[in-house]
Amino acid sequence: MNTSEAKKILLLYRGPVDDADPQFAEALAEARRDPELAQWLRDQRNCYDAIRSKLRDVEPPRELASKIVGTRPIPFHRDLNRILQLAAAIIISAASTAVSMKFWEQKHHRIAQEQEITVRGEILDMTCYIANNLSGPDHAECARVCIRNGLPAGIKTQDGKVYLLTGEPGHSVNAELADYAAKVVTIKGRQTVRDGFAQLQVEEIQKL
Amino acid sequence: MSGDPEFEELVNRYYRDLYRFGFSLTGNEADACDLTQETFFVWARKHHQLKNPANAKAWLFTTLHREFLKICRRQKRFVDESAEEAIENAPEVSPDCVNRIDSRTLLRFLAELDEDHRAALVLYYMEDLAYKEIAEVLGIPLGTVQSRIARAKIQLLRRLSEPSAAAGAK
Predict the structure, then answer these.
(1) CATH fold for domain B5-71
(2) Which of A14, A146, B55, B117 could bridge to A125 as Cys pair (CB 3.0-4.6 Å)?
(3) ipTM above 0.85, yes or no
């Protein structure tokens, strides 16, 4: 290998990061033998370091990291199984409560207490809210998707009480509620309490 | 929103380097911020597809580059000069030539390069990625990466060796 050939190869040599790359081995050996080539290589390296240093002088805006962290989408796919498990648990719990209540009603000829109320609060995607305490505008898109896909929806009132929102028997209100995900609305409906679990059968939705 | 320590750690580890890569590709702060942010958004949505977590850095750079290619328009092309010819005509540039210019001028010179060559050259200079990893980030063969870097480097060195370079003039 002559000096010219070695230079062609060493033009891409950056230093320690390339030391393990076998394509440079012979040319580096040549540079160790040839003082002129060694000097040329030192100049190349210094030039490389100077350019690298200038490029790394560029600093991002201070708030960029917090902006990224604060506005990241929910990694829905990663927790899909967990979310589905929780959704199934909520549905099973609600269903078993309903069955128990029906049984109780039949046994005692009584129905769960019903009361027409109007509440104001934020529409929640119950699965993410219960599992991860996620709510608010940052979580709006995920909540909208979850509710539209049929996962349980709820409303959290200003005094912190949470109701599971349902439609009339056999009728889902998720399609209507999805558009209000994470928004504050007023809902008029029939409240029932089963085993301490508050539900609201939606009759009317009003956005603030 | 509840915090995700893993995500925050990832952001804090790589956002500067990704921003610099984005800034070098686009030449402006707003686009670099958008690219960096979009890269982490893609990560949040799709990182479960990454089989080897050790490849996170390369994955992020690949993603940023893909996002850049989506928005960029090809404006400049290299003169059709082979890498061999380019290397034959490589100028001698001293570190002093580089030290005389500021980062902004250097970025302007980089912006004159074709975006494919620019991306390869920026990764060559800024990141401690092996050539094989740069090839993976850019999705091109190893030989193509090396020829692009060689040509782009020589074009940059030529620009730096011009008398007007130190003054920051075109």
Answers:
(1) Rna Polymerase Sigma Factor; Chain: A (1.10.1740)
(2) A146
(3) no
Q: What is the mean pLDDT for each group of 10 consecutive residues in chain A (208 residues)?
A: 85 89 90 90 89 88 84 56 72 74 58 78 90 84 86 90 88 88 91 83 82
Amino acid identity at A42:
R
Query: Are B131 and A64 in contact (CB < 8 Å)?
Result: no
The sign of the CA dihedral B11, B17, B20, B21 is negative
Where in the sequence of chain B do the CATH 1.10.10.10 domains occur? 83-165
- In angstroms, the CA A135 to CA B168 distance is 51
B contacts of A18 (beta carbons < 8 Å): 130-131
Which residue of B125, B149, B155 is the best one to mutate when testing the A interface, meaning the one whose CB has the most A CBs within 10 A? B125
**If one looks up domain B83-165 in CATH, what number appears?**
1.10.10.10
Domains of chain A, with CATH numbers?
3-55 (no CATH), 71-207 (2.40.50)
- Pairs of residues, one from chain A and one from chain B, whose beta carbons lie less than 8 Å apart: 127
pTM above 0.80, yes or no: no
Quote the tokens at residue A187: 């809902």
| Out of A69, A136, A139, closest to residue B7 by CB | A69
- CA A208 to chain B, closest CA, distance in angstroms equals 23
